[in-house]
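Propose amino acids for all 477 sites.
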């Protein structure tokens, strides 16, 4: 993966930069030791690594503002970072950049049950947002599988989703307002604690902007009352294509499960061994969950099971207890970790119209044979949000390059099928050079003009989202 040539002028002034950062931050909040900065050399896309110039870990919006003023003044690139779980290389540093990590900014600032919102510092982890309100029977809906670790900061930047987003929407549908610091240190507030805002939908622009427009320090999030009950069903099928067709038929029928998750044989095997979820022995597995009162659950499942039976399932198993449901979800949520235990892999994230699932799954199988690399599929099928995991050997020369080429072909396939390059993981460095397959030069130009407004020097999160050549030309202008 090509990265920009580090700015020698910036690198040569590291000592002065660190000195100035130490003037505005507590001493434990600036890390410039060569070995300690290594902990920040990559995110969850571990194939690409580069230690940053230094790392800062502020605790307040004021400290973030002071850091950005200094970096702006000295022309130093800044890479915002939450928990570093990006699978798209979104938080990968450049050798001349400062990592600005918000992990220490994790306070709950306000909880309001009457108006159903919570205000947090964005370093707070996704799961601990629900943790702060669950005793009062509320929850925060977007639930990435990484929710134990990932921060609201990264969720906002990537517009993250999760298994239960089929019903509740992704981050942008659950975000009411943000406080954000621009590259020159200016603090702005966008949105509030209410639905929609006057004027342009800047909140919609910021959510999913991948650290390109500013550093988000506070967020107001919608919280919801916990449903009365929920019940998952396991559905086993004889092939990926048949399971894909079943998903398409469920969506077409107009019932709205809270989640429809898909796993194929390699993932079922690895996950079951890892978590003891008790999954059936089959080629493809769906977890379909509905929620509501007992009567609502029975009615929705009646329709869904009738559809499933038409696809000759090898197994239909309703959960009988809260413990069984938890086990079923533990398996799915640990799927990436389970696959990581047995192989190096690259996780893709393309989205397609649900009706093309059978065709796209078949083509992925063919590409796997063409490239000689195995693929595991585990994804949010109800949203058509696919996550092919391409297995490769990081120690075998040429394997990573083959994996990258195959990944690019799969993502182009998603675009050709009427979908897009990313459903929830973002573009990062992983897909930046494929943006030309999705957008015309004019489409890309209008997006880059938005960055011109927020970050005219193009110092925030360099080399991400836009094709490298285009962003470097813009930075130099
Ligand atoms: C095992 C595993 C499972 C996953 N499952 C899912 C899933 O189900 N759904 C899903 O959507 N994703 C999933 N992901 C991907 C990842 O967890 C999400 O993209 C997550 O939102 C990243 O959050 P983070 O705090 O780790 O962000 P980071 O990785 O630190 O950063 C991600 C991006 O956010 C930007 N950023 C960070 N902080 C700020 C800030 N304060 N202001 C502005 N920009 C900022 C960074 O510059 C970067 O571009 C998974 C990852 C793993 C490793």
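Proposal:
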């Amino acid at each position: 993966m090509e990265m920009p040539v580090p700015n020698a002028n910036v690198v040569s002034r590291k000592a002065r930069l660190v000195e100035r950062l130490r003037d505005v931050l507590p001493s434990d909040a600036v890390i410039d030791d060569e070995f300690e900065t290594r902990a920040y050399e990559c995110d969850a896309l571990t194939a690409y690594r580069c230690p940053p110039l230094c790392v800062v870990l502020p605790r307040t919006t004021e400290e973030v503002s002071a850091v950005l003023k200094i970096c702006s003044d000295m022309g130093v690139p800044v890479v915002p970072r939450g928990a570093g779980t990006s699978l798209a290389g979104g938080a990968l540093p450049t050798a001349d950049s400062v990592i600005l990590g918000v992990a220490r900014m994790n306070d709950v600032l306000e909880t309001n049950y009457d108006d159903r919102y919570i205000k947090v510092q964005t370093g707070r982890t996704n799961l601990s947002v629900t943790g702060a309100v669950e005793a009062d029977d509320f929850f925060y809906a977007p639930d990435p599988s990484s929710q134990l670790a990932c921060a609201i900061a990264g969720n906002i930047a990537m517009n993250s989703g999760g298994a239960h987003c089929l019903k509740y929407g992704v981050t942008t549908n659950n975000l009411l307002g943000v406080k954000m610091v621009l590259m020159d240190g200016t603090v702005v507030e966008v949105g509030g604690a209410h639905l929609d805002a006057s004027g342009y939908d800047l909140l919609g622009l910021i959510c999913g902007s991948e650290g390109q427009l500013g550093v988000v320090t506070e967020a107001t999030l919608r919280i919801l009352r916990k449903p009365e009950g929920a019940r998952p069903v396991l559905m086993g099928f004889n092939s990926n294509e048949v399971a894909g067709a079943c998903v398409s038929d469920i969506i077409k029928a107009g019932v709205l499960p809270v989640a429809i998750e898909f796993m194929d044989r390699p993932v079922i095997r690895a996950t079951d061994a890892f978590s003891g979820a008790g999954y059936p022995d089959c080629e493809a597995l769906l977890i379909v969950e509905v929620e509501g009162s007992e009567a609502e659950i029975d009615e929705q499942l009646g329709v869904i099971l009738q559809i499933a039976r038409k696809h000759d399932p090898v197994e239909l198993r309703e959960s009988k207890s809260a413990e069984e449901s938890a086990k079923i979800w533990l398996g799915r949520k640990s799927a990436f970790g389970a696959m990581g235990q047995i192989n190096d892999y690259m996780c893709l994230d393309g989205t397609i119209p649900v009706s093309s699932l059978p065709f796209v799954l078949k083509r992925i199988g063919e590409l796997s044979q063409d490239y000689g690399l195995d693929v595991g599929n585990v994804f949010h099928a109800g949203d058509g949000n696919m996550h092919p995991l391409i297995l490769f050997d990081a120690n075998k020369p040429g394997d990573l390059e083959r994996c990258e080429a195959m990944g690019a072909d799969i993502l182009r396939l998603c675009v050709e099928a009427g979908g897009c390059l990313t459903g929830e993981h973002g573009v990062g460095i992983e897909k930046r050079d494929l943006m030309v397959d999705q957008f015309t030069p004019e489409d890309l130009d209008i997006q880059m003009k938005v960055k011109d407004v927020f970050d005219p020097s193009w110092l925030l999160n360099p080399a991400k989202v836009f094709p490298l050549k285009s962003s470097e030309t813009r930075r130099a202008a």
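The mean pLDDT is 95. The pocket of flavin-adenine dinucleotide is lined by residues 43-44, 79-87, 90-91, 102, 122, 144-146, 150-151, 153-155, 157-158, 160-162, 210-211, 215-216, 336-337, 424-425, 461 (CB under 6 Å).
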